[in-house]
Amino acid sequence: MIEAKTPSGSIERQLVTVSSETTPLDLDARIPLGSIEQKWDECRFEMKLVNPANRRKHSIIVVGAGLAGAAAAATLGQQGYHVHCFSYHDTPRRAHSIAAQGGINAAKNYRNDGDSIFRLFKDTVKGGDFRAREANVYRLAQISLSIIDQCVAQGVPFAREYGGLLDTRSFGGVQVQRTFYARGQTGQQLLLGAYQALEEQVAAGTVTMHFRKDLVDVVLVDGRARGIVTRDLVTGEIECHAADVVVLATGGYSNVFYLSTNAKASNCTAIWRAHRRGALLANPCFTQIHPTCIPLSSEHQSKLTLMSESLRNDGRVWVPKKKGETRAPKDIPENQRDYYLENRYPSFGNLVPRDVASRNAKEVCDEGRGVGPHGQGVYLDFADAIQRLGLETVRDKYGNLFDIYERITGEDAYTVPMRIYPAPHYTMGGLWVDYHLMSTIPGLFAGGEANFSDHGANRLGASALMQGLADGYFVLPCTVPDYIASTGLDPVDVSHSAFAESKTWVKNRFKTLIAVNGKRSPDSFHRELGSIMWDNCGMARSDAGLRKALARIPALREEFWNNLRIVGGEDELNQALEKANRVSDFLELAELMCIDALDRTESCGGHFRVESQTEEGEAKRDDANFSYTAAWEWKGPGKAPALHKEPLTFEYVPLSQRSYK
Ligand SMILES: Cc1cc2nc3c(=O)[nH]c(=O)nc-3n(C[C@H](O)[C@H](O)[C@H](O)COP(=O)(O)OP(=O)(O)OC[C@H]3O[C@@H](n4cnc5c(N)ncnc54)[C@H](O)[C@@H]3O)c2cc1C
Q: What are the residues facing 108 on neighbouring strands?
């Protein structure tokens, strides 16, 4: 145990315990009965409605204005509720969703290439290595059809074929072309659609935007989520906000690794503070390392850049057969190249899922066959595609991605193969939610990347946008009203003592951060934490490595609380304080991730335990012992988290060893 002094002088013991206790809590996922095709329809029919005249009497807080949050806030506003939408950004258009490049899946089957709702469902369950909830995944596949209709109606400029029909392309882990896209800017275009819908409601007076407000606590009254506490990032003011329901759509936590493809500001504070208030956190160790990112070029770098998976439609991945090769790629003859994905996985080739592609890239680099300055890279080569399709076609499809690549590396990928390497990208873990997307705190819902729900142990490409928009436009607008209609909600305002208690806790925490007055910046702690996580809880995880991380993280956290330096005060714009607040949460979450990874001694999807692999080096699941969602409960500072298990059953997609050969 380590101890950190709070400003009041009491001792807050920080969590360091490795072991986990299993407690028998019945996690009711509220999965509707009936056949999988009927569950969502039945559920919607059974849900209670709120009379339009009564909706304006209810207020809903939505935290987050990315795709999931903006879609939910706009739709609930349109229904007539009073929605308060919070974001630490100064506009929804800056949400990390804007960065999404490649596309969004939907089982429209416009190409008539064998796609169907059932196939999208099956691909997703299999792609997630059988660690997702079947009922949620099926619903996601069903709703995917409506998402495209919704976005087209909004005017999202999806790419079209010459004849005017919507175009699609392939993403990893599937053999159909179901990915709709807007060049390499799909997230941006979808977010503009959601933003327009949101602005319409702002103009209509149903949605009030609260910009530059950082959620720092969730407030519970009588066991229900009834509000939040925020810090104004410009003035430093700590403010309380009450409502009938709180929805968190606050994105993912890949930045626990410090270097990731996420926006620099993406963080875990909202879900972690909710976790500290009682919301279980599910599968925190399930993180996705994306295979096609621009390799790290210097140790001072603070950000990694994604090259969309769509590039694997036409780019061919290879490394030299010879270790320590120094020749330029153009001088290496065909027979001395190893197109290792095409060779090892002839059925899926370069379009194997991300976890498989990433692990293989690491393997060939570890063998000493990596390319580029640090040997941490593999080639993604477009020479064949350019010869086959012509330069202009390749430019039309991927031009902006090639431009990004050139701006960062100074290399022209039309003439020299791109160099790529895996990087942290997406977190499948998140707040545990039931079928209604409600967390274990009644009245606290979570959507988009902030929840754990639909992707299991590995997310297939182009499925995050689909899930965020399914949650925001279609699921939450049904389930949140059902909660309101079926719950007797007493009036609560910010004068309630629960808000005062939370505000005091928050203020004390900020004062403590400033009072440390040590020598190291928040960034330096974050960078060190990231490297511990990347080395020990990244692409490969071992018992010894995880134990090492679990020894180092508490020590780093102790140093953080004793040697942190923040310049400036709390009642002003202070980015160092913002960062320190976030890093303090990453330091706690990281430990839970390692505990979760240590506990799950099987390999599945992106969670690769080196002790559990097939003879061919693929992830080896242990269904007899690990066919469950691990949902962790915060037991208080200094106490071991408790593990609760939601058993997973597979009625429609029988359990099988994943194979992409
Ligand atoms: C480079 C890149 C490319 C990608 N490309 C694709 C793709 O092609 N297809 C695909 O399906 N997926 C893609 N993804 C994944 C996808 O973009 C994300 O999973 C998705 O956009 C997340 O949306 P969200 O609404 O859940 O969260 P975000 O877009 O991250 O939004 C979070 C919101 O919450 C707010 N917020 C967070 N914390 C707080 C707080 N404490 N207080 C107040 N506000 C807060 C933020 O201000 C923001 O408005 C990509 C991801 C990356 C990194």
A: none
As a whole number of angstroms, the distance between CA 99 and CA 468 comes to 14
What is the rounded distance in angstroms from the CA atom of residue 639 to the CA atom of residue 21?
10
Helices (DSSP H) in 47-116: which residue ranges?
Answer: 52-55, 67-79
Of 455, 555, 473, 583, which is closest to residue 575 (Cα–Cα)?
A: 583
| Ligand 1 nearest atom to the CA of residue 252, by list position | 30
Q: Which tokens in the block code for residue 452?
A: 């754990």
**Angle of helix 67-79 relative to helix 186-204, nearest 10 degrees?**
30
Phi, psi of 585 (to 5 degrees): -75, -40
Residues 6+ apart with CB under 8 A from 214: 88, 230, 231, 232, 233, 269, 578, 581
Closest C-alpha to 211, from 238, 187, 230: 230
Q: Whose CA is closest to 99, among 208, 188, 165? A: 188
Q: Which residues line ligand 1 (CB under 6 A)?
A: 63-69, 86-89, 95-97, 99-104, 186-187, 213-215, 249-252, 261-262, 266, 269-270, 306, 308, 425-426, 448-450, 462-465, 468
Lowest average pLDDT, out of 104-113, 171-180, 551-560, goes to: 171-180
Q: What is the pLDDT, as a whole number, of residue 25?
A: 61
> Rounded CA gap, 461 and 173, in Å?
8
| Secondary structure letter of residue 175 according to DSSP | S
The protein residue with its alpha carbon nearest to ligand 1, atom 12, reads: 464
Give per-residue pLDDT as tens, 516-532.
Answer: 999 999 999 999 999 99
Segment 84-95 mean pLDDT = 97
Maximum Cα–Cα distance across the chain: 74
In the numeric block, the tokens 């896209």 are attached to 181
Q: Closest by alpha carbon to 355, among 177, 172, 104?
A: 172
Contact 259, 304 (CB under 8 A): yes
Tell me which of 465, 578, 583 to substitute to probe ligand 1's pocket, judged by most ligand atoms within 8 Å of the beta carbon: 465
| Range 55-74 average pLDDT | 98
pLDDT for the residue numbered 7 = 34
- Asked whether the beta carbons of 456 and 132 are under 8 A apart, the reply is yes
Tell me the pLDDT band of 8, cut-offs 50, 70 and 90: very low
Which residues are known to be catalytic? Answer: 354
Separation of alpha carbons 103 and 110, rounded Å: 16
Average pLDDT, the chain: 94
Kindly report the pTM of this predicted structure.
Answer: 0.94
**169 three-class SS:** strand
| Beta strand residue intervals within 131-212, DSSP E | 168-169, 179-180, 207-210
Taking the centre of ligand 1 as the mean of its atom positions, its distance from the CA of residue 582, in whole angstroms, is 17
Judge whether residue 22 has pLDDT over 60.
no
Q: Which of 63, 88, 96 to mutate to test the pocket of ligand 1 (most atoms within 8 A of CB)?
A: 96
Give whole-number Cα distances, 11 to 5, 8, 14, 269, 395, in Å. Answer: 5, 9, 9, 22, 60
DSSP type of residue 127? H
Closest alpha carbon to 177 in 331, 10, 327, 397: 397
